[in-house]
Amino acid sequence: MKNISSRLFNWWSILAITAVFGILYMTVLHPWMNRWGMSDSDLNMTLEVDTAVSGQVITSTRGITINAPAAEVWKWVVQLGQERAGFYSNDWLENLVLADIHNSNEIHPEWQSRQQGDRVNGAGGAVYGQSSFWPVLMYEPGKIIFLWGGISVLPLDSQTSRIVTRTYAAPASPAAQVVSAFSYDWMHFVMERGMLLGIEARAEKTSGSRDILQGLAALGWVLTTIGIGLVLFVRRRNWWWGLMALAYAAAILFFTGDGWASAAGFLWFGIITAGFLVWGSRWWKGLVVSIMAVITIFVLSNDPHTVFGLFFLALSLLAVMIGLTRQSGLKAAPFPAKHISPIQ
After folding, report:
1. Bridge partners of 168?
2. Which of 50, 31, 75 shows the shortest CA–CA distance to 164?
3. How many C-beta atoms surround the C-beta of residue 260 within 10 A?
4. Closest by alpha carbon to 285, among 5, 29, 26?
5. Residue 128, Cβ neighbours under 10 Å: how many?
6. How confident is the model over 217-243, as a mean pLDDT?
């Protein structure tokens, strides 16, 4: 059985899986990401933000319909920025790079104005200070703000509106576009979609509708963090790798105060390290497959934190069941009968 699994899980099979993933990503997922939430008729519509740039091509247009008046939606949009309300997205991911971003769930009157030329921080805190920012290239109160791209709030009727985001880039070679697609594009999509969904939840006041799932997911994160910690520190050899994962988690907590980002950082570093400690060089194959699976989850899931948490919970329960089964099997195993020689 071991020989069969090793033959199936060789580098040729990994290369084949990677090739299939790459083809599906470029032909299905990437085009879908770049037009998320847009119909065919709306995709190529002209927006006022198009006039803010010249000599560049459109790289993505995304949108979301929100059951709230445009004026109310704009109050959330104008607060965007690390120094203000955050980006209503996956701040636990942003804080993995010590960005010190914290999403607000309230409208602040003092944050309800911007001006063209303002700097909107993309990251901040003790690590970045004021060095990471977007200048506001275009600003129309209640309608448009241009940061990394154009963000337009469009009224549909008195109680419904749409947010449409559009990004641009200088024309690039096909090779550069492929590199961007597999490195930057999917990460930007995850964060921008998170922002759109985050604004929708706040404007419609539906952010607390998934409390049970989020509670179960939180349990999964906690149990898996404990489990990876045991793998890293119980071993007598190479336990210092666990200290490196712990140091990274501590740095995140110190610079951002984000406990979930700290746990994610510990798991990210810890899972990679634990794989090499347990399986050695064989983990390279598993790591490649794991990276493709993680990218797929991030791209397809509207709430990756909850999805990963539920996945971790399932793995933790499975590990406990396997452990109990093995333990009961050992207890049930009979002792070997002692051979007694017959009396001559």
Report:
1. 58
2. 50
3. 17
4. 5
5. 18
6. 88
The model's pLDDT over 236-248, given as tens digits with 9 standing for 90+, comes to: 677 888 899 999 9
pLDDT tens column, 132-143:
999 999 999 999
Query: What distance in Å separates the CA atoms of residue 84 and residue 258, rounded to the nearest whole number?
Result: 16
Q: How far apart are CA 307 and CA 314, in angstroms?
A: 11
- Residue 155 DSSP SS3: strand
Residue matched to tokens 């009968």: 337
CATH 3.30.530 location in the chain: 35-172+195-204
Q: Which token pair is 235?
A: 């071993």
For the residues of 10-33, what is the DSSP string, one character each? SHHHHHHHHHHHHHHIIIIIHHHH
Least confident of 35-44, 65-74, 241-250, 318-327: 318-327
DSSP 3-state of 337: coil
Rounded to 5 degrees, φ, ψ at 327 are -65, -45
Q: Collapsing DSSP states into helix, strand and coil, what is residue 192?
A: helix
Quote the tokens at residue 139.
Answer: 């600003």
The answer, as to whether pTM is greater than 0.70, is yes
Name the DSSP letter for residue 219.
H
Distance CA 31, CA 37 (A): 12
Spatial CA neighbour of 267 closest among 195, 316, 300: 316
Q: What is the 3-state secondary structure (H, E, C) of 56-99?
A: CEEEEEEEEEECCCHHHHHHHHCCCECCCCECCCCHHHHHHHCC
- Residue 150, both tokens: 């154009």
* Selection from 310, 108, 93, 309 nearest residue 202 by Cα: 108
96 token code pair: 């993995």
Question: Given this structure, which CATH class describes domain 35-172+195-204?
Answer: alpha beta
Residues 6+ apart with CB under 8 A from 110: none
Q: If you average pLDDT over every residue of the chain, what do you get?
A: 90
96 C-beta neighbours (distance < 10 Å), count: 18
* Rounded-to-5 percentages of helix, strand, coil across the chain: 60, 10, 30
